[in-house]
Amino acid sequence: KRLPPSPLKLPIIGNIYLAGSLPHRSFHSLSKRYGEVMLLQFGSKPVVVASSAKAAREIMLNQDLIFASRPRFSTADRLLYGGRDIAFAAYGDHWRKGRSMCVLHLVSNKRVQSFRPIRDEETSLMTEKIKRFSPGVVNLSKVFMDLTNDVVCRAVLGRKYGGGDDREKPFNQILKMIVEMLQRYNVGDFVPWLGWINRVNGVEAQVEKIFKMTDQFMEGLLREYREKKSSDDAVVNFADALLQLQRESKDSDPVEDDVIKALILDMFGGGTDTTFTALEWTMAELIRNPRTMKLLQKEVREVARNKNGIDINEDDLDKMPYLKAVSKESLRLHPPLPLAVPRELTQDTNLLGYDIPRGALVLVNCWAISRDPLLWENPNEFRPERFFNTSIDYKGLHFEMIPFGAGRRGCPGIGFAMSLYELALSRLVNEFDFGMPNGGREEDLDMTEAPGFAVHKKSPLLVVATPRASL
Ligand code: HEM
């Protein structure tokens, strides 16, 4: 067999030690030596890392069907009701049914449109909140986290849970704990005979405790939704829609409670951290690049000027080509999930001349691809203008940049995420001028990445936001 090139393995753990705290960067460096397709070994699990657009196209388009499953991770399995969600579910009927429910009731164009009043209100609240900080320092990372959380909460649950300024409510804590737990390497997933370690070091007990808290919360939630309607009566929320579906399907193929709970958790996991991260990196790049910020403000403010004081709304966004270019450039440089979500290969195959065994875990390094100097001129520079003369975008058809993945398992939430992202960004740059706190220099803004599944800024984005004089 002709296997892909591999770095040296250590006994038992294999190449786990090479992942480091920012695996997308470590794998990128390794790919320079071992090539666009390399084979690592995590314990007993073969791991294929693809680092070129060509390899990604092969995995996510040409051979999408056999690369469309997800590996099982014991923590995700337990916390997400035994794989009853969709993001971590194996490819098959359950996944197909779950995904179509999510598309139909949350992220289709029609549903995304129906959430327009929510985005409108929440982005207005966001700018109001920022004004209250002025002329002091505002933590934009926190502002974006609250914004995405509140919008997802209202679309999924019909109201804010732990919303407003009361962030320490149980649901937020539970979500935080789930995300933190999912991010940890679980040694038993890679070296099965070392699985006992998790029983001894308390990880298993911790997962169990989080699961119990989550389930208790979700049980209460479903009970409450069955008893009364939610508060956002004008908009049908995801939880109500799923419960309605359950009532309608009770005599044929009933939707289990556990599926509803898992899908709700998935939508929070998929929708909040990612969108907030995208906004955070975009604003950081804009503040670091004042010339680009000025060009964007000029475009947005010109559109706003013609509206006689009425707020920018979503119909105005199509008149903002520079805003579209900024969003593409930011997602190119900072894909929030740099290694996408792991895939699993369901049959032996050949990938760009290499034999890959069935069962391999497959990582596509989206971060490395969209910084490939063979595809992008000066790839590490933030230069939105590069998108003026190209049709390349982020929707999964151009493998030069795939921040949302592609193919059957590609992100279904693009419309949901980007409609909020663009409205929030345009309103922000329209209404405020931004500077660094304590007279700091823009070019010194810290762009260090924090480890995690979604990679955000290590230090929060602190800025001084001054309301524009005429507003
Ligand atoms: C900027 C925001 C977002 C980014 C960058 C992003 C990125 C991604 C990526 C890279 C994947 C894996 C794709 C693959 O395997 O090919 C994914 C999957 C997924 N995303 Fe997103 N996402 C975002 C927003 C959202 C939102 C708003 C939702 C829902 C409300 C969502 C729900 C999901 C789900 C459910 C999956 C799993 C799909 C499956 O396995 O079939 N995402 N996302």
UniProtKB/TrEMBL annotation:
The keyword Iron applies. It comes from the Eukaryota. Keywords: Heme, Iron, Metal-binding, Monooxygenase, Oxidoreductase, Signal. It is a single-pass membrane protein. It is found in: Membrane. It holds the Pfam family p450. CDD domains: CYP71-like. One of its GO terms (biological process) is terpenoid biosynthetic process. Heme binds at C411. GO terms for cellular component: membrane. Gene3D superfamilies: Cytochrome P450 (1.10.630.10). GO terms for molecular function: heme binding; iron ion binding; oxidoreductase activity, acting on paired donors, with incorporation or reduction of molecular oxygen, reduced flavin or flavoprotein as one donor, and incorporation of one atom of oxygen. Its cofactor is heme. InterPro entries: Cyt_P450, Cyt_P450_CS, Cyt_P450_E_grp-I, Cyt_P450_sf. Belongs to the cytochrome P450 family. PANTHER family: CYTOCHROME P450 71A2-LIKE, CYTOCHROME P450 FAMILY 71 PROTEIN. This is Cytochrome P450. It comes from Salvia dorisiana. The gene is CYP71A77.
